[in-house]
Amino acid sequence: MKKQVHHTSGVSSADFVELGSDDSFIAPNFLDNQIETKEELKANRRKLDRERRRLERERKHARKNMSIAEQIQEEWKLPRKKLGPIHFMAVSVVALALIFAFGEGVYNEYFNSGSELVAAAFSGVPEVSEEPISNQSKMDYKVPRSDPRYIRIDALNIDARVENVGRDAGGQIAVAGNIFDAAWFNESSKPGDKGAVVIDGHVSGPTQDGIFAKVSHLKSGDTIVIERGDTTKFTYVVRRVETVRLEDVNSSQLFQVINGEDQGLNLITCSGQYNRNADSYSDRTIIYSTLVKKN
Description:
Blueprint: H1 38-64, H2 68-75, H3 85-102, H4 104-111, H5 135-140, E1 148-153, E2 158-165, E3 182-185, E4 195-201, E5 223-228, E6 233-245, H6 251-254, E7 263-275, E8 280-294
Parallel strand pairs: 2-3, 4-7
Antiparallel strand pairs: 1-2, 1-5, 3-4, 5-6, 6-8, 7-8
Helix pairs in contact: 2-3, 3-4
């Protein structure tokens, strides 16, 4: 994931699929008596998730500048007033006792729970950009001749750049630096080569939906076009859309072409519930497609 929702990837080539059906869900609104669709409910939930992530990042940033005593005061919800000398000493003694008794690692784990956990794919990466991509930037974007340059999905109104990514510092599949870009994992196949091209994308950033926010809406028969650096276009047809729990992602399947065909394209992004402590989503949505045309 990581991104920013969002989010770096935190799943090895292995851990990476539909947020739910497109059926409408009628919810009573006693203020204006309007009908809210299930998609609107999902959008509102994503907004709340982004706001929770933003507040959590601000809290963690503020804690970096706190003394040990102040961190304990914050964690234990002690009165919000300046600690007197006696209280300060008592709180500091407790903190030092934790460090000496169990080591600094235990202290950090307790007071920074979740911050050092391995982030799963497309988590809320603090460095991710939400800067809109201008048409000129798209036109000027260059990649090696055989690499993916653009991805176009008419059904979702997606026309975006494809960034070349490898593994992050933790050995996990990386993600694009901007939530409006997709990312080709450069250890997967290239368009035109045998095997599956694997492309990931952010489901959201800190305040906005990402490029693959609605990728779960794709259905069998929809087309995806990848344009290489040499302008050759490859058209793929969606064969299957599936959602699985993060821990159940089949890594070998992610890097294989569905139905045993020679060339394919697999898209992946986050879905499900956002876990604040792990800074990741519970599920992954994967789109399996196969090559039908090259021009």
